[in-house]
Amino acid sequence: MTAGKQIFPIIFLALLSVSCSTAPTVQDDKAAVEAVSKARAAAFNAGDAQGIAAYFTSDGRLLAPGKPVSIGRGQVAEYYQSLFDQGPLILESWYEEVQVDGDLAYGRGEARVSSLDPTTGDTLRSSSKYLNILQRQADGSWLTTHDIWNDN
């Protein structure tokens, strides 16, 4: 066998293995973005401020209404801990739209939060609309770069 004939099967197999590798589809990416949102909601309902902050990039920004911008995981955790220190909260949230373009994505959604009034014991409810911007990380995971909301 000549050198050209010997190398052809090796090149063919290499090209075949590359073409068979499975890059994430847009649907896979959308599902991953939605999973981040669900994990953040689960951490919120567990009162886990650090757990929420873990889903932000190291320089992620939380833009809560009427508050200074929280930058970085430490400040994000501090913001959420200040909420949890006031008493238990229950969050229901869902995306109404998720879009992915390369390594950036956004999720637009709605949320409802219930809490107990510490003086009366009455259940308080609020609802809001929100927008999350996420970025794919080097390991393929998605983290929040920006989170902003306002009341309905």
Description of the structure:
The chain is α+β, with helices and mostly antiparallel strands and 152 residues long. Helices cover 37% and strands 39% of the residues. It contains 4 helices and 6 strands, in the order H-H-H-E-E-H-E-E-E-E. Residues 15-19 have low confidence and may be disordered.
Termini, distance in Å?
Answer: 75 Å
Strand order of the largest sheet: 2-1-6-5-4-3
What is the H/E order? HHHEEHEEEE
What integer is the average pLDDT?
A: 90
List segments where confidence is low: pLDDT < 50 over at least 5 consecutive residues. Answer: 15-19
Please state the structural category. Answer: alpha+beta
Number of helices, where a helix is a run of at least 4 consecutive DSSP H or I residues:
4
Q: What is the helix content?
A: 25-40%
Oligomer: single chain
The coarse silhouette is elongated
The main sheet comes to: 6 strands, mixed
User: Which percent band covers the strand fraction?
Assistant: 35-45%
What's the alpha carbon Rg, rounded to whole Å? 22 Å
Number of strands: 6
What are its keywords?
single chain, 152 residues, 4 helices, alpha+beta, 6 strands
Brief description of this entry?
This protein has 152 residues and is an alpha+beta fold.
Describe the SSE topology.
Blueprint: H1 3-20, H2 26-45, H3 49-53, E1 56-63, E2 70-71, H4 72-84, E3 89-101, E4 104-116, E5 123-136, E6 142-151
Parallel strand pairs: 1-6
Antiparallel strand pairs: 1-2, 3-4, 4-5, 5-6
